[in-house]
């Protein structure tokens, strides 16, 4: 099966699964056209997001904010990113924690299936990162991700009844309940390279991983960003 056909098949399966959930939990009945359009719109959005990331990765960081920076003294920085593989039908999540010296503390990779909307995948990455950091009982944490939509919605006071809105609400609840003197911030793609590489790596792994030593795939990036 050609890659583009497999991608279309994957998103249609996801849309059928979404249709099943809407019928089961919301008693909503959708037409075949609605189910197909949702899958096609997801694939179109995903392709556009990948094209944008590729363009951004080719642009040299020539303006402020395009390089990762250490947190202030006494704080931790938690970088988060999501990667989307239509071939594997997976969403990979990469999370990396560093201290105020820029030194590696811990990293984690995990993945979800089937593939989903880009913003939902990014928001789930933030939620799962918060749950992990809370389990580690860390405070004074700067959560950074390169999804401006997710960060904007996290700080917004507007009511959002969508699936994305529900996940953001869970993020806010987790944040307000467990984190003191912490923040959620948007950064440019170039300043989130470690999490991006981990997220891509996540989709190729059979299971979730917690790294207590610097993974080989991000070792050079960590060293360069400590300079």
Polypeptide structure, described:
Strand 1 and strand 2 (90-98) form a beta hairpin. This protein has two domains: 3-58, no CATH class; 76-226, Ribonuclease H-like superfamily/Ribonuclease H (Nucleotidyltransferase, domain 5), CATH 3.30.420.10. The model is unreliable at 59-64 (pLDDT under 50). It has 227 residues and is of the alpha/beta class. It has seven helices and six strands; from the N terminus they run H-H-E-E-E-H-E-H-H-E-H-E-H. Helix 1 packs across helix 2 (32-58) and helix 3 runs parallel beside helix 5. The relative contact order is 0.16. The radius of gyration is 18 Å and the shape is globular. Helices cover 49% and strands 18% of the residues. It has a six-stranded mixed sheet.
Question: Number of DSSP strands?
Answer: 6
CATH topology of the largest domain: Nucleotidyltransferase, domain 5
Poorly predicted segments: 59-64
What is the second-level CATH architecture of the largest domain?
2-Layer Sandwich
CATH class of the largest domain: Alpha Beta
Say which CATH homologous superfamily of the largest domain is assigned.
Ribonuclease H-like superfamily/Ribonuclease H
Structural class: alpha/beta
Q: Tell me the strand order in the biggest sheet.
A: 5-4-1-2-3-6
Secondary-structure element string: HHEEEHEHHEHEH
How confident overall, as mean pLDDT?
87
Straight-line N-to-C gap: 46 Å
**Major pleated sheet:** 6 strands, mixed
